[in-house]
Amino acid sequence: MGGCFSKPKPVELKIEVVLPEKERGKEELSASGKGSPRAYQGNGTARHFHTEERLPAPHPYPGTQDCVEAAVCHVKDLENGQMREVELGWGKVLLVKENGEFHALGHKCPHYGAPLVKGVLSRGRVRCPWHGACFNISTGDLEDFPGLDSLHKFQVKIEKEKVYVWASKQALQLQRRTKVMAKCISPSAGHSGSTNVLIVGAGAAGLVCAETLRQEGFSDRIVLCTLDRHLPYDRPKLSKSLDAQPEQLALRPKEFFRAYGIEVLTEAQVVTVDVRNKKVVFKDGFKLEYNKLLLAPGSSPKTLSCKGKEVENVFTIRTPEDANRVVRLARGRNAVVVGAGFLGMEVAAYLTEKAHSVSVVELEETPFRRFLGERVGRALMKMFENNRVKFYMQTEVSELRAQEGKLKEVVLKSSKVVRADVCVVGIGAVPATGFLRQSGISLDSRGFIPVNKVELGGLGRLLGWGWWEVQVRAPVPPTEPWALSPQMMQTNIPGVFAAGDAVTFPLAWRNNRKVNIPHWQMAHAQGRVAAQNMLAQEAEISTVPYLWTAMFGKSLRYAGNRRLGPGRGQGASGVRGYEHPRGGAERAIGRSEELAGGGTGTT
């Protein structure tokens, strides 16, 4: 693959006509300028969609018998900028007053069910109090992540100084609304070797990219491939709820993917990407051509390199099966966690009620020291010690000892020996980009995929021409959107985008400094921006990085991006707060006094 650029060949330049916005979803990404005649069968029986098949826009109130209307308050009961949860027939509604107008919305965040009345209302948006998802109060639409669904918006009217809300009973019960999406209208039987959009990786970035394309009206073929045996699932829950079953973690049911023509290839490993011929090769030899490509491979966990690393019952938490097996092995026995980062500490917290003993081994002096600072780290450490967790700090694992092939003891470099029946390793991760090394797609020295805005001349750089050569040698001036427009989340190869844990990207409020932020929320945002730029909408990342963790019924929420050097922390509180560009303050909870005293709230 290393020689794929060695011999220049005559180049045929295809022109992509940019259609009006309402037509773009039908045609934008189709290589032929019309619906692709190809079909693909993945994960079950292929379904055929027809040109006339569309998602009907659901009427909010199908019939009066299915609705409920009631007066919920007096107009003077709420001041501007206030929110209130009100009873309405079968359920509750979030009533909001801003700039003299009343709005009624679903009262729970669709992500994890947080009560939005405890969130932040600012500039026409309400922000979830737990994980920062943001919703437009005029439409109910999700405008910032995490999460996939929006809120229902209910009708409000004012009569005789009273506020009336009219709502569908079904909407009151569901408390979530999936945005209207296009359906796939182009597949046909017999040929499975080509797709319009290929997405490598089915985490948050990959799934959101696919959904965003459908939401924006794109109706051609989308293939989503993943190493996992499961459909996309909520990976952050793996270390917080190790008992959770795959079906409980699923982000969307199987029927969703069938309904919207998003084809998912499970246990599918891409081994080669040929950017010149726009083709990928899978481990089993299957080849798939693409028009646009999103790389969202995520990361691979680091493993121990010590003596005995091959013994049984040593895990990295990567899949639901890993997590479930750890819990089974730890019940009433001795568990050792190597690494006091987020994954390691979440696992340790969960196992305290299951295992006979839980020990944590960490190279640093305090947990989270590099990320949250020493003060917060010590407060967290004290909270864990109060819950029977034993710490072995400033040391490493030198050997894993086995009895009959199964783990029995963990030997530390400090010469201490810790009894262990199961060991979880959480010492960091590396980008899963090894398959790209010979592809021509740029990787930095750590293996991350740099993405940036591509300025004029991207076509010439790809073909080895100068910009003047593009104008002279091309049959007509290059008018493809990726050749002429800035493209956020695009790699050095036009038409190839990247998102998620494996990328570095320019963060606007850090003066466009390239950063890697492996947060669940950020992966959502990058997947959406990548999809919008595939459609030449020139979107940019405007979200504030946000992460959360939960341990012993308490939560720690962190907004922003670490500014100081390793080990220096973030000052007394260990966190920083930022005002979101579209409104709604990001709030971080985690002062050491609160963590030690139990004042951080719960999720």
TrEMBL record:
Region (Disordered): 23-46, 563-603
SUPFAM superfamilies per the UniProt record, alphabetical: FAD/NAD(P)-binding domain, ISP domain
One of the record's GO cellular component terms: mitochondrion
Record keywords, A-Z: 2Fe-2S, FAD, Flavoprotein, Iron, Iron-sulfur, Metal-binding, Oxidoreductase
The keyword Ribosomal protein belongs to this UniProt entry's keyword annotation: no
Segments forming domain Rieske: 70-165
PROSITE patterns: RIESKE (PS51296)
Biased composition (Basic and acidic residues): 577-594
InterPro entries referenced in this protein's UniProt entry, alphabetically: FAD-oxidoreductase/Apoptosis (IPR050446), FAD/NAD-bd_sf (IPR036188), FAD/NAD-binding_dom (IPR023753), Rieske_2Fe-2S (IPR017941), Rieske_2Fe-2S_sf (IPR036922)
Molecular function terms from GO: 2 iron, 2 sulfur cluster binding; metal ion binding; oxidoreductase activity, acting on NAD(P)H
Pfam families per UniProt: Pyr_redox_2, Rieske
Domain of life: Eukaryota
Protein name: AIF family member 3
GO BP: execution phase of apoptosis
